[in-house]
Amino acid sequence: MNKAMLEEMGLHPVWKLRRAEEAPAEACVATMGWDELEAAIASCIKCPLHKGRNRVVVGAGKKKADWLFIGEAPGAEEDMKGEPFVGQAGKLLDNMLASIGLSRQKNVYIANTVKCRPPGNRNPEPAEMAACRPYLSRQIELVEPKLIVLLGRIAAQSVLDSDEPIAALRKKRHSYGGIPAVVTYHPAYLLRNMDDKAKAWEDLCHARRLMKELDPLS
Ligand code: URA
C-alpha cells in the first residue's frame, strides 16, 4: 500500500517499527526494572553474538544481593540452559562460594560481561562487551551489591577498564561506580591450573574480610 493510499484513508504518517538493534537505547535500559531488562536482553541483537545463541544468559541468584560475581561469557551448557555457570566451572564456583558461606540461593547474584555465548567459547570481543555493558550496568544498579567479585582477566579488565594483567589486579580494592570490587581467577582457569587454587582461596578470604569491613553484620 503506497503513501497516497494511506493518506487517503487517514492512516498516514505510519508508525514504523524500530529496528531491534536501535532499541532499547542506553538511556532507556538505565531506567528498566528486572522484568523489562530481562525482556530487553532476551530480544537483543546489538552485537553478532545473538546469531549463534540458543538462550540468552541474563544472570542467576538473588536479585538483591550483597555479593555480585561477574564472569566472562556463557559457555555451551549455559547457552543451552539459559543460566550462568552451570558446567564444570560452575560447580567449582558454587564450591568457592560455599567455602566462604555464600550461595546463589542466599546472598549472591551472578552475571557475565556478555549474555550470549561467543562461538567456540572464544573470549568475548571488547566491542561485544561494550554492546552488552548497559545491561550489566543496570543489573549492578538493581542488585545493589556491597561488593563485586570479578572472575578472571577478561571480566576484570573489561569492568575495571584496565589493561593490567590479573596478577596486578588481584589483592587490591578496586571500585566500579563507587562499589568496591576485587579480582580473582576464573573457575575455568582454576580447573586447568590447580596450583593457583591456593591463590584463589587467598582472594576469597580477602573478599570476605573486605565485606566484614563494609558490613560488620555480614
Ligand atoms: N564461564 C563464564 O565466565 N560464565 C559462565 O556463565 C560460564 C562459564
Structure, described:
The protein is an alpha/beta fold and 218 residues long. It has a single domain (19-214), classed as Uracil-DNA glycosylase-like domain (Uracil-DNA Glycosylase, subunit E), CATH 3.40.470. Helices cover 42% and strands 12% of the residues. It has helices at residues 3-8, 26-29, 34-42, 76-81, 88-99, 126-143, 153-160, 166-169, 187-192, 197-214; strands at 60-61, 67-71, 108-112, 147-151, 174-176, 179-184. A six-stranded mixed sheet has the order 1-3-2-4-6-5, sandwiched between helices. β5 and β6 (179-184) form a beta hairpin. The longest helix has 18 residues, at 126-143. The protein is globular. It starts with a helix and ends with a helix. It binds uracil (URA).
| Outline | globular
Any idea what the radius of gyration is? 20 Å
CATH class: Alpha Beta
Strand order of the biggest β-sheet:
1-3-2-4-6-5
Helix count equals: 10
Category by helix and strand content: alpha/beta
- Through-space gap between termini: 64 Å
Q: Encode the helix/strand succession as letters.
A: HHHEEHHEHEHHEEHH
Give every kind of bound small molecule, once each.
Answer: uracil
Beta-strand fraction estimate:
5-15%
